[in-house]
């Protein structure tokens, strides 16, 4: 990821865009933050936020034409928030923090302001606070211009006087009763001039004018046809429109131009969204209870409680759609715009700790966020790219995905992987590729399904191919290993005559589809639908809630086939709130379960809680992950091939050792029964018989220690006699490092086997841990 | 790694040499880093004892720290 990509990705997440109210406000009051304070009853803090954008809060909180109100999203679920009334409450109930008038360092430059109305005094205020020498020329006898013509009930004189007091504290030269006749003369005496004489147009300044006789100015800089002379406020729009907040906005923006003009820098660079603009924020309103505006009392004024109630109605508009949907994004308590920056930083660190490694490795890469995001931002893709980069930089923590990669290596070793055409056939028309985890979980169903395919697909040779598609390497960011695996399937398929691959697993399906687009594939579920269920299948009358695996997110026909099969089987199928293209990962995807068990548990638990019915799915891992958390769940093959008498939804998830064993045995069994072959050669450790209690088994499972790891330690220790002995209990403790992990096993011989009491492991290297 | 605490007694003897273990300096390493640690070990053949707490506690922490460096 380079800087440019980072910025593009950051821009894609619109979570930090101001809400519609703030964007529509010509001075961009931080309405959300202000109302948060009001809701808490902290009117002083709220006032402070208001004053940051509004220099004359008493006046504006009475006069503002509140364009924010017109676009407030609350209007769609109740009434728009009474923003101006709440601002007035801030002024009334908040105490003004006594702004310490720090001495302002003087800057070079004289600025003349023509007109002491609200726009002119705003510009004067801003420029004086920057340290420029400012002179205001006002025709009338007081500052404030048209403010004095406003209804006294709405805007009493004391309010104007009180707010304008600040103008006497900034060292501004205020010349009342002083009309200006020659604007160009004034410009010669000053480095810059701001013209803000309000709606009356008698003045005949010699400047370019537009259609309606108004002085033309650059819409961004407010510069007139004469360099150094700027104009804004009511004199730009005449009497038709009166917006004190727009006058303030233009005064401030002209002041920015004048400051730049005096500093001889570009007037136009990066001045986007200075006035009112349209917000890009997306806020979903589904499920929000409509609430009416808190009624106004006493004319149009709120008391403190009313104001707090009204502020509470503010939706605090934000996006956060993906964060709401994904436990992983939620867990880290920020949102993608921040996350991509953290990922970028993590990838750029040369020396020092990479704090985001676990973050990057915890994503299930399920793609749900991309479905939900109004801007289609896909954190899964970003995390995948980051993992690949970490692997390339040799910065991927060695322990991160080691277990899953070793599981894949097992699947693609001779212990499980093999390909065969039908006995007697030289090539195959179809080949059944059940994948690794279905064989690990339900080897008997795989055998049945293969039998079915051979029986039903008359006239076709259906071969068999066992192995792991390579998804674990893909998820781990191990591109080289992944490509090597893909190459192997391509070569093997070619050798079998380029058959169509029959796939039950949706992860395999995705891998084949994306990495081997030239290979013809078909989902096993579509074939069942096409060729009919096996005759001996017993109907199962029950209600199930269907869970689509995240890798089947975009496979409508596959999703439909499974639903049809379930109905044919007699099930009533219910949909989960998040289903089909919006389905949720079970936490197996992307190795989430391995990288971050805590986030994985939240993810799977949330999914489980969506529906009380037994879940029906068509991925072995989804089924097993639900079962592990105590959720009743069936795989579609459990319905097709399970014994009607057994409680199929209560089937336990086999442990990791059992999953190896199931795969190894499936191979042996099929080779013998179908091809009449026997597997030769066992390794020394395989003959070690271990005796493990359920309690110890659970510890091993949690620590990801396999039976074969234990067998290797004992085989080594017994052969070399390198083991510790406890003279009291007669137990042994031995350690051995088969590859990268050192395993410790506490055991005791019993009959022809060994009772296991405990096992643990570490990756640090210690002396005496064996040959290897 | 140098500040690890090990139990003051060890129930284990070397099953190879039939000798009681003694506390001694052992070099443990990870990703090219080596740390001298005091552990129980066989005075004759050097077979060592890494307690479960150490493997799953301090050692794991250090492994993770080094992996994130
Ligand atoms: S609900 Fe609140 S944040 Fe949203 S537009 Fe209205 S005032 Fe602004
Ligand atoms: S877990 Fe899924 S939804 Fe969450 S960030 Fe990763 S890809 Fe997106
Ligand atoms: S859905 Fe998520 S990534 Fe997309 S804009 Fe909203 S917060 Fe950002
Ligand atoms: Zn010894």
Explain the overall architecture:
The complex is a heterodimer of chains A (772) and B (69). Chain A is α/β, with parallel strands linked by helices. Chain A folds into 6 domains: 18-98 and 282-312, Orthogonal Bundle (Fumarate Reductase Iron-sulfur Protein, Chain B, domain 2), CATH 1.10.1060.10; 110-263, FAD/NAD(P)-binding domain, CATH 3.50.50; 321-392, no CATH class; 402-531, Up-down Bundle (Glutathione S-transferase Yfyf (Class Pi), Chain A, domain 2); 542-653, Rossmann fold (3-Layer(aba) Sandwich), CATH 3.40.50; 684-762, YaeB-like fold, CATH 3.30.2310. In chain A, the strands form 4 sheets. Chain A has a 5-stranded parallel beta sheet, sandwiched between helices. In chain A, strand 11, helix 26 and strand 12 (571-575) form a beta-alpha-beta unit. Chain B has a 3-stranded antiparallel beta sheet with strand order 2-3-4, with no helix packed on it. Chain B contains 2 helices and 4 strands. Strand 16 of chain A pairs antiparallel with strand 1 (13-14) of chain B, so a sheet runs across the interface. One iron/sulfur cluster (SF4) binds at residues 19-21, 31-32, 72-74, 81, 83, 314-317 of chain A. The site of zinc ion has 8 residues of chain B, from loops.
Q: What is the total tally of β strands of chain B?
A: 4
Radius of gyration of chain B: 13 Å
The CATH class of the largest domain in chain A, by name, is Alpha Beta
Shape of chain B: elongated
Q: Major β-sheet of chain B, in short?
A: 3 strands, antiparallel
Q: Name the beta content range of chain A.
A: 5-15%
Give the chain pair forming the largest contact, with residue counts. A-B, 33 and 31 residues
Quote the CATH topology of the largest domain in chain A: FAD/NAD(P)-binding domain
- CATH homology group of the largest domain in chain A: FAD/NAD(P)-binding domain
Count of distinct structural domains of chain B: 1
The helix content of chain A is 40-55%
Percentage of residues in helical conformation of chain B: 10-25%
């Amino acid at each position: 990821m380079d800087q440019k990509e980072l910025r593009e990705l950051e821009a894609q997440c619109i979570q930090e865009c101001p809400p519609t109210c703030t964007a529509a406000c010509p001075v961009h009051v931080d309405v959300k933050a202000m109302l948060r304070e009001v809701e808490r009853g902290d009117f002083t803090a709220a006032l402070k936020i208001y004053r940051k954008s509004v220099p004359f809060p008493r006046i504006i909180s009475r006069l503002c034409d509140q364009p924010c109100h017109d676009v407030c999203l609350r209007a769609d679920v109740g009434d728009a928030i009474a923003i101006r009334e709440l601002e007035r409450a801030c002024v009334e109930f908040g105490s003004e923090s006594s702004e310490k008038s720090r001495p302002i360092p003087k800057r070079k430059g004289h600025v003349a302001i023509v007109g002491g109305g609200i726009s002119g005094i705003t510009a004067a205020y801003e420029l004086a606070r920057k340290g420029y020498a400012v002179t205001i020329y006002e025709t009338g006898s007081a500052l404030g211009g048209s403010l004095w013509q406003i209804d006294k009930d709405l805007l009493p004189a004391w309010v104007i006087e009180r707010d304008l007091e600040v103008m006497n504290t900034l060292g501004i030269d205020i010349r009342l009763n002083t009309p200006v006749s020659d604007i160009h003369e004034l410009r010669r005496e000053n480095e810059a001039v701001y013209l803000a004489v309000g709606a009356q147009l008698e003045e005949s300044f010699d400047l370019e004018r537009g259609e309606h006789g108004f002085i033309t100015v650059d819409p961004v800089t407010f510069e007139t046809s004469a360099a150094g002379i700027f104009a804004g406020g009511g004199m730009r729009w005449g009497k038709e429109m009166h917006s004190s907040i727009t006058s303030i906005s233009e005064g401030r923006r002209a002041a920015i131009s004048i400051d730049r003009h005096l500093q001889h820098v570009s007037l136009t660079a990066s001045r986007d969204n200075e006035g009112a603009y349209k917000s890009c924020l997306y806020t979903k309103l589904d499920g929000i209870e409509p609430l009416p505006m808190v009624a106004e009392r006493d004319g149009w004024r709120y008391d403190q409680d009313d104001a707090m109630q009204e502020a509470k109605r503010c939706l605090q508009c934000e996006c956060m759609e993906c964060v709401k949907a994904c436990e992983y994004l939620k867990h880290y308590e920020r949102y993608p715009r921040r996350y991509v920056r953290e990922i970028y930083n993590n990838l750029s660190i040369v020396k020092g700790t990479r704090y985001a490694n676990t973050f990057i490795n915890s994503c299930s890469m399920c793609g749900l966020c991309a479905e939900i995001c109004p801007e289609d931002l896909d954190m899964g893709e970003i995390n995948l790219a980051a993992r690949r980069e970490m692997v390339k930089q040799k910065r991927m923590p060695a322990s991160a995905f080691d277990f899953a990669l070793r599981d894949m290596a097992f699947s693609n070793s001779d212990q499980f992987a093999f390909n065969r055409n039908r006995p007697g056939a030289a090539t195959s028309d179809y080949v059944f590729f059940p994948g690794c985890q279905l064989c690990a979980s339900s080897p008997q169903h795989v055998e049945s399904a293969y039998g079915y395919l051979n029986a039903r697909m008359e006239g076709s040779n259906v071969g068999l191919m066992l192995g792991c598609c390579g998804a674990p390497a893909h998820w781990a960011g191990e591109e080289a290993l992944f490509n090597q695996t893909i190459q192997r399937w391509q070569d093997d398929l070619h050798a079998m005559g380029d058959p169509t691959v029959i796939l039950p697993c949706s992860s395999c399906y995705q891998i084949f589809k994306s990495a081997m687009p030239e290979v013809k594939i078909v989902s096993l579920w579509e074939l069942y639908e096409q060729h009919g269920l096996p005759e001996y299948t017993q109907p199962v009358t029950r209600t199930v809630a269907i869970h689509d695996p995240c890798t089947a997110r975009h496979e409508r026909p596959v999703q439909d086939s499974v639903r049809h099969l379930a109905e044919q089987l007699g099930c009533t199928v219910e949909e989960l709130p998040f289903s089909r293209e919006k389905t949720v990962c079970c936490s197996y995807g992307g190795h989430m379960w391995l990288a971050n068990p805590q986030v994985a548990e939240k993810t799977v638990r949330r999914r489980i809680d969506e529906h009380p019915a037994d879940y029906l799915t068509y991925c072995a891992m989804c089924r097993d992950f639900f079962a592990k958390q105590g959720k009743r769940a069936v795989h579609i093959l459990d319905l097709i091939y399970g014994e009607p008498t057994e409680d199929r939804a209560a089937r336990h998830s086999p442990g990791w050792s059992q999953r190896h064993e199931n795969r190894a045995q499936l191979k042996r069994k099929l080779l013998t029964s179908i091809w009449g072959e026997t597997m030769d050669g066992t390794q020394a450790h395989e003959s070690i018989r271990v005796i493990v209690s359920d309690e110890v088994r659970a510890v091993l499972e949690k620590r990801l220690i396999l039976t074969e790891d234990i067998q290797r330690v004992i085989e080594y220790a017994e052969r070399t006699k390198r083991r510790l002995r406890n003279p009291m209990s007669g137990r042994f403790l031995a350690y051995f490092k088969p590859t990268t992990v050192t395993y410790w096993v506490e055991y005791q011989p019993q009959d022809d086997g060994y009772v296991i009491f405990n096992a643990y492991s570490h990756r640090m290297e210690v002396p005496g841990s064996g040959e290897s | 790694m140098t500040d690890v605490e090990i139990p003051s007694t060890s129930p284990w003897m070397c099953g190879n040499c039939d000798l009681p273990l003694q506390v001694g300096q052992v070099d443990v390493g990870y990703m090219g880093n080596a740390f001298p640690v005091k552990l129980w070990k066989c005075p004759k053949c050097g077979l060592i004892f890494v307690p479960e707490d150490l493997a799953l506690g301090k050692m794991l922490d250090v492994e993770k720290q080094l992996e994130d460096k």
